[in-house]
What we know:
This protein has three helices and two strands, in the order ββααα. By secondary structure, it is an alpha+beta fold. 18% of the residues are buried.
Amino acid sequence: MLALDQPKRSATSGFLDWNLADFHGSSTRISLVLREHGHTIQAEVFGVFFLPFYLRSGGLPDNNHPFELVANEYARGGSAIP
């Protein structure tokens, strides 16, 4: 796991929380700030290939998009790299 791959909790964490429904119908609150930070890390790692990889992985974001699933996992404390 990369050092920059660790979620950072700050004063803004929790300010923009998001209810995320999973496939079992239960809801989890995640920080939207951390979720979007996961996408920033993905873009830093993949560089100019981020957008082509993102679009090739499923096009528009939905509940099954790999980059979105990994960003959600990052917001829960996991890795930001698919």
